[in-house]
Design a protein that fits this description.
With 971 residues, this protein is α/β, with parallel strands linked by helices. It contains 47 helices and 29 strands.
Length: 971
């Protein structure tokens, strides 16, 4: 915990926003996407400029630091500190002004980059810098780091786009930095305000000819566009009063890349560019070595590229283990050591193809590369998403050895790349290292990463040694040690080496002028924190042993499962970015409700708790409370952090000390109560849907309770078994898993499934298996869930084969066999074998259709429009593509898949009174508006029973299970 104790209650009383100093918030804000960990004093969420002024006043009075934070995706530790974190991501989110004619836009610092470009797209404009985190990173953070991304070779870096910054200085004064003429610059120096002193200091310091020459001699080469070591005083030399040619000066240039150490930026005015030409082609050039790819960059950059990006074998191999990215590997041929993604853009397909062929022929003539697939349209997006996921994918390495961000931001001249990489590779061999290569190669920017175990002291020593040696090598080539990720903690120590001691002293004087009491982001750029201290893990610690009921051996234990989260923040992505993760964050916009926060909080308490049961913390209960167990993170998080599994384990362990709440037990034991209620279903349904019953059970009174059917699937099958078995069998036998939800609530869907498959020539066998255990799993009663898993695995292991698969109707139930059963069952081998032959009904029908066992001729030729909402666990553990294929079997059905996120019901979650509003908010986020706009004649398909119920409650529209839709289409 922080060594300083400050009472934040007086601050909370005067802020319009909020401030938190509880252990949970301090834990989840102790890290960013770097290797560092510092427990802050607390976290503030300012609502307006007055709040920021109040925070600055408080910081000055109490001698503390303010740590500005946007999305928290910094790789160098910029957002880590022991002061007060100021999170602008929740309230500073407005697009303030837009001038289409002037091609400018003014935004608050918490506007997300892709959100801005979504707004600008209809006007044919965009903000060029494009980081891999663009769907959640914020303009304020991009200004703080001077971000660049994939497009910098064509559109420049953030500094090139900043026209004006509205800021609040360390004395609380509001100051705007923008372009000034010589006369205006002189006028700014008159007076004794802090603003006047800043302009006087800059003028006095940079007017000195010796200082100018020292800057020119020591700073990185001017033609390296990505230069971000310390403060960019070299850029100010472009002003004619300081030896340059520009007649105007703009100190916004100085603040861009200053990492929030000079002033607090609240509004940003940006210069915009026209959208790129629409006819683009991406060549994915494959290489047999990194060296070969670097030589190819020099050739490729002569071809007017829009992007030139590198992925190496390590990253490509990581994509094999990620469900979401595996499908984006379609263009990879063989086993390349590196792939360069080279993008050509023109206004005609013919011209783009011509230029692409010229590039390929040029590479072939130099004998560089062995495969050159050309990608167009959506295939480019898939390849770009694969590359963007690289940072997170690197966190998916099993064990304590991880790729470490320390030398990942070096930039040299493009012509120097081959020699630089050659020397770098030789240097790494002396450390016994083979680095990971991930680069904006066309800009000379290389995201090189060593693989280290920072839990070991010897590797912490290597951490410093490798960083130091690389800094020397970069300096030798006149390069930049910080290209776009900033100095932060990890590289700030090396600034004197990179720019010279005299220039570094100048930076310190500039910092002191702006911020005499060092309240803005202490420990960054000047007087930095040591780069090998305050790491996430204590070196040579005794590794905590955490016993769990689930098997987390695939991550080497539950603690390492939490440690897979590297903080990349993909769980904060915009809904427009697609996918489902993370529904609770999308609803609340609170960091506490992200996948990242849950993983980090659990890691923090499992590592540092002194309790015998390390799970027994109310803070953990709070952080997991709004997790819907949707499983989206298990596939969409590049590191595959499965928070649903972590939550289930946490609840199981927490209940050992605190007991299982009545309502939780009630929901978990729903099969027992449904079996009893189904004896008199009409009476049961009447009683359950009264307000009194709902209040007693803790259910939202606005909810309608699902009604028990008058007949169950089992009772119907028993009555119709003889008739069904007399039907001719053409294509073999399947075992139908009659889950507990279908049996009691949706018997008509179960009946439709049996009738459909029988009509199509399959023998449908129904057995007396156990319930799936889904309710026990989601409620964390894992001892009972394990009993169900063990029974079902033992029951089916001698029955299920490739020719006799297990098929299920409700996704969350049948997919337990492919997910949770593998963690819970004692007979792991049997569970794995069953999982290989377990299918959702959609997967099975798709498979049979592709084998020509099912024909479109068996179904109606009538037209219909269908839209599919996919169940969250279906999207994570399977796909909605089989549903699309299945519903497209009737030849005149027009089917589309909605990008609809999570419905918000999530089993019992949406029924619970305290979760009802969040549940409906999640639905309104994406799904409900799309359902309402679908049109009256459109059929809505939804596989999940909870999804159908939520759609009904949220839109008053009835949706159908896909199997019912197909059954109704049967001739």
């Amino acid at each position: 915990m922080s060594t300083k104790t400050i009472d934040l209650n007086p601050l909370a009383n005067v802020l319009s926003g909020a401030v938190f100093s509880d252990n949970l918030h301090k834990s989840i804000y102790a890290t960013d996407a770097s290797v560092y960990r510092k427990i802050p004093l607390g976290v503030a969420y300012p609502k307006n400029n007055d709040d920021i002024k109040t925070l600055i006043k408080f910081a000055n009075e109490n001698n503390i630091s303010l740590i500005p934070r946007a999305a928290g995706t910094s790789l160098a530790g910029q957002c880590v500190g022991d002061g007060l974190v100021v999170d602008i991501s929740k309230h500073f989110t407005k697009i303030i002004a837009f001038n289409e004619h002037a091609k400018t836009v003014t935004v608050q610092s918490g506007v997300i980059r892709d959100e801005l470009n979504n707004f600008l797209k209809p006007y044919g404009l965009f903000f060029g810098p494009n980081t891999s985190t663009s769907n959640r990173c914020m303009i304020g953070g991009m200004v703080g780091n001077n971000s660049s991304g994939t497009t910098s070779i064509k559109y420049g870096v953030t500094r090139d786009k900043v026209i004006e910054l509205k800021t609040i200085l360390s004395d609380g004064s509001e100051v705007t930095f923008n372009e000034l003429t010589f006369q205006q610059f002189q006028q700014k120096q008159l007076g004794n305000s802090l603003e006047n002193n800043i302009y006087k200091t800059i003028f006095n310091e940079l007017s000195n000819k010796e200082t100018q020459q020292e800057i020119i001699n020591q700073f990185p080469k001017k033609n390296i566009h990505r230069r971000n070591n310390g403060y960019p005083i070299d850029e100010l030399l472009n002003y004619e009063e300081f030896g340059g040619e520009n007649k105007t000066i703009n100190l916004a240039t100085l603040l861009t890349g200053s990492e929030g150490t000079l002033a607090f930026t609240t509004e940003i005015t940006l210069k915009l560019d026209p959208l790129p030409p629409s006819k683009n082609i991406m060549i994915a050039a494959h290489f047999s070595s990194i060296q070969e790819s670097m030589e190819a960059v020099v050739i490729a950059m002569k071809h007017n590229l829009f992007t030139c990006e590198l992925m190496d074998k390590t990253i490509l191999d990581c994509t094999k283990n990620n469900r979401e990215q595996l499908k984006n590997r379609f263009f990879v041929e063989g086993d390349p050591k590196a792939i360069l993604m080279l993008e050509i853009c023109t206004n005609s397909e013919e011209e783009s193809n011509k230029k692409a062929d010229e590039l390929i022929n040029d590479l072939k003539a130099k004998n560089l590369g062995y495969a050159f697939p050309k990608l167009v349209n959506n295939d480019i997006d898939k390849a770009v998403n694969l590359r963007k996921a690289g940072l997170g994918l690197l966190g998916n390495m099993v064990g304590d050895n991880k790729t470490v961000a320390c030398i990942e931001d070096t930039a040299v001249e493009v012509k120097d790349l081959p020699n630089y990489i050659s020397e770098f590779t030789e240097m790494m061999k002396t450390f016994g290292q083979e680095a990971v290569y991930y680069a904006h190669a066309g800009a000379g920017e290389l995201h090189l990463r060593p693989i280290l175990n920072l839990k070991k002291k010897e590797d912490v020593v290597l951490f410093r040694e490798i960083t130091s040696k690389t800094a020397h090598l970069v300096k030798k080539y006149g390069g930049s040690f910080s290209g776009e990720h900033g100095d932060g903690i990890v590289r700030a120590e090396f600034i004197p080496q990179m720019i010279g001691e005299k220039n570094y002293e100048l930076l310190k004087r500039i910092k002191h002028t702006f911020d005499p009491h060092n309240i803005f982001n202490k420990g960054k750029i000047v007087d930095p924190f040591p780069m090998d201290e305050s790491l996430r893990y204590q070196a040579d610690r005794k590794e905590p042993i955490i016993e769990t009921i689930q098997d987390f051996s695939d991550s080497l234990g539950i603690l390492r499962a939490t440690e897979k989260c590297n903080g990349s923040g993909d769980c904060r992505k915009l809904p427009e970015a697609g996918g489902t993760m993370c529904p609770s964050y999308r609803a609340t916009k609170n960091e506490k409700d992200t996948t990242r926060a849950r993983a980090n909080a659990l890691r923090e308490f499992l590592t540092n708790s002194e309790k015998q049961n390390k799970f027994n913390h109310k803070e953990l209960y709070d952080v997991f409370d709004l997790c819907l167990s949707c499983k989206a993170c298990a596939s969409e998080c590049p590191s595959n952090v499965d928070v649903a599994a972590l939550k289930a384990e946490f609840l199981h362990q927490y209940y050992k000390e605190n007991g299982v709440p009545f309502r939780t037990q009630l929901f978990a034991d729903n099969v027992k109560w449904n079996k009893l209620g189904s004896l008199t279903p009409t009476f049961t349904n009447l009683v359950l849907n009264t307000k009194l019953t709902k209040k007693i059970m803790g259910i939202a009174t606005q909810r309608s309770i699902p009604k028990l059917t008058k007949t169950t699937v089992y009772s119907w099958y028993k009555r119709n078994k003889k008739r069904l078995l007399s039907q001719p069998v053409k294509f073999g036998e399947i075992f139908l898993f009659v889950d507990e939800f279908t049996n009691y609530y949706d018997a008509n869907i179960g009946i439709d499934t049996i009738e459909l498959l029988t009509e199509l020539g399959y023998k449908v066998t129904i057995t007396k298996h156990e319930e799936s255990g889904r309710s026990f799993i989601s409620k964390g009663i894992l001892d009972k869930a394990k009993e169900k898993a063990d029974f079902n695995v033992d029951f089916f292991k001698a029955k299920i084969t490739n020719s006799k698969p297990l098929v299920g109707i409700e996704p969350s139930a049948i997919l337990s066999f492919r997910d949770e059963y593998l963690r819970l069952a004692d007979d792991k081998n049997a569970a794995k074998e069953i999982s290989k032959n377990t299918f959702t009904i959609e997967e099975f029908i798709k498979r049979e259709f592709e084998k020509n066992n099912i024909s479109s001729e068996s179904f109606t030729a009538k037209t219909a429009t269908l839209k599919i909402h996919g169940h969250c666990q279906q999207k994570s553990l399977s796909s909605t593509e089989p549903t699309f294929k299945m519903l497209s079997i009737p030849k005149n059905y027009s089917v589309t898949i909605l990008n609809s996120g999570c419905c918000g019901m999530a089993g019992s979650f949406g029924y619970e009174k305290e979760h009802y509003q969040i549940s409906m908010q999640v639905g309104e986020d994406t799904l409900f508006p799309k359902i309402r706009n679908a049109g009256k004649e459109t059929i809505i398909a939804a596989s999940g029973t909870s999804c159908r119920h939520q759609i009904k409650d949220g839109t008053s529209i009835n949706s159908k299970h896909p199997v019912t839709i197909l059954k109704e289409a049967l001739l």
